[in-house]
Write a structure and sequence with these properties.
Layout (H helix, E strand, L loop, with lengths): L1 H11 L2 E11 L6 E4 L4 E8 L2 E5 L2 E3 L5 E5 L5 E5 L6 E11 L2 E2 L8 E4 L3 H17 L4 H17 L4 H11 L2 H15 L7 H7 L4 H12 L3 H19 L4 H7 L4 H12 L3 H7 L2
Antiparallel strand pairs: 1-8, 2-7, 3-6, 3-8, 4-5, 4-7, 6-10, 8-9
Helix pairs in contact: 1-5, 2-3, 6-7
């Protein structure tokens, strides 16, 4: 599970989200029968009673709960006529490369909000930004959605593990997991396209676009990014000399210093001084 979790963390760096609808509702308009939407639904239940049936499984969300109804699932919803749900609503899409974030999900994700006041505040901000717009509205809307998704999916114990397992299942994700794990384990060595391509049984000419499609960058760009992250970590939190840092990430000292300054604007030694 540790390898899958690490790979999933790497993949999340390429998560893209978009919001298509956001609103606060408190009436009887939540009666649907066997709908199969092409978008994900996120709700926060603030009050009321009702029922959700997703792919034939029945749930009764309670006030204070966040829930995600993945795209492509068969959904029936109902709410009490005497005590209808007061619900915060967001319709959204979420993709990691070519993969929908909830591509393999066939169940409802539901969690008691750890901080209801904060959840309402963030959801209210999402709704306000979605409707009123402005130069930074999209950025603020997406930021709010990401906070709410993390709040709903991030759990102690089996909850998070189950979601990661849902996402990582499938041949393509297993292939990519092997490549990312290999890169992490061999940052200090020469990493060749031919070797990475062998891991997924692809010709190098096909491997490069395959990797870019799923990760949003070429394999060598990804390797350079991971090496730079490791170098920053070593410079900030270890006593390794700059030369030792270069060696640990598989680069010659001159090449490392030149590349580091090109990307960050300062030398490795100056970076170390600024972070201590």
């Amino acid at each position: 599970m540790q390898t899958s979790s690490l790979t999933f963390t790497r993949l999340l760096e390429n998560l893209k989200v978009s919001v298509s609808y956001a609103q606060l509702r408190g009436n009887m308009e939540w009666i649907r029968v066997d709908e199969t939407p092409g978008f994900n639904r996120l709700y926060y239940i603030a009050d009321g009673e009702g029922k959700v049936i997703l792919n034939g499984i029945s749930y009764e969300p309670k006030p204070g709960q966040l829930l995600i109804m993945p795209a492509g699932t068969r959904q029936t919803t109902n709410t009490s006529s005497e005590n209808p749900y007061l619900r915060y609503i967001c319709h959204f899409d979420a993709w990691i490369g070519e993969w929908p974030l909830f591509h393999a999900s066939n169940r409802l994700y539901m969690k008691q909000a750890a901080n209801p006041e904060m959840t309402i505040s963030v959801f209210s901000e999402l709704i306000e930004q979605f409707h009123h717009g402005g130069p930074f509205a999209t950025m603020r809307t997406q930021a709010a959605l990401l906070i709410l998704l993390a709040s709903c999916l991030e759990e102690e114990g089996e909850g998070t593990a189950d979601f990661i397992k849902d996402f990582m299942q499938g041949t393509e994700r297993d292939k990519l997991a092997a490549v990312l794990s290999y890169i992490d384990e061999h940052l200090g060595e020469e990493l060749l396209i031919d070797r990475l391509a062998e891991l997924v049984h692809l010709h190098p000419n096909y491997f490069i676009p395959y990797f870019k499609k799923h990760m949003g960058m070429t394999p060598m760009h990804y390797v350079q990014q991971k090496r730079l992250e490791e170098a920053k970590r070593l410079l900030s939190f270890s006593d390794c000399s700059v030369s030792e840092v270069a060696d640990r990430i598989g680069l010659g000292l001159t090449h490392f210093s030149r590349h580091f300054k090109k990307v960050t604007g300062i030398t490795p030694s100056a970076y170390r001084n600024h972070t201590r």
